[in-house]
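Milestone M4 deliverable, item 7.
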Amino acid sequence: MSQVSNVSACEPRWLTLPATPQLPAGGREGVVERADARIWHAVYGSGAPVILLHGGLGNSDYWGLQVTELAKTCQVIVMDSRGHGRSSRGSGSMSYDLMAGDVMALMAHLRLPKAVIIGWSDGAIIGLLLAMRHPDLIAGVFSFGANSNPSGTHDFTKSVVFNAYIARTGEEYALLSSTPGGFKRFFDEMMAMWTSQPNITADDLQKIRVPVWVVDGDHEEAIKRDDTLFIADNIPGAGLLIQPEVSHFSILQNPHQFTEDILRFLREKCIA
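Output delivered:
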């Protein structure tokens, strides 16, 4: 898969965009149909279920450096959000609510009584929504790089790294999607969603009763730190973790650190 990067190898880690990994071989792939869309997923390992939700414009391959280690002790499920990667777009406006419903449909399809959500960016927002609305089905949420509302984000179009990510995901979309020429339209739909959603209030966050870690990078270029603190401060008992020397793309910039933090969360809060 072609990679795009506008940063130099001598730049600090948080100003790099390492190559997108690949998912390991051996995943049990499948498709769930919901709301006119076909949602692709793959399952690895066995044990307590852990669902990995990727960021906006991306796809499940971005979890390629976490899956193998997590699957040693857990049943790991990756899914491409609707319109992303191998999943089709379906009808209706793009929304976090719609994508959260897709996660619920996948859990029902796989007959999962409960699952931990590990979310990055848009996936982190979806995880928080699921914790609010389905506490009986969600065992915990590791939420990296979420925002509570559109005002909680910086203008990421001014970021060299984020623009490199957008260019890269356009190439990946052309390779993975069933509508390879549709990235421009899809990107515009996502921008419309990002400028109007989510709309998570303090009251919403205060209703969460499942274990949550609110996580971000110390050089985050897309999410305002005040909004990260707002989320952490309003979720009862939430942990706050700021990872060192990484940005919104910590998952690529320091995958070992990212994986170890997930494992620590699972050990301490969710899975014995």
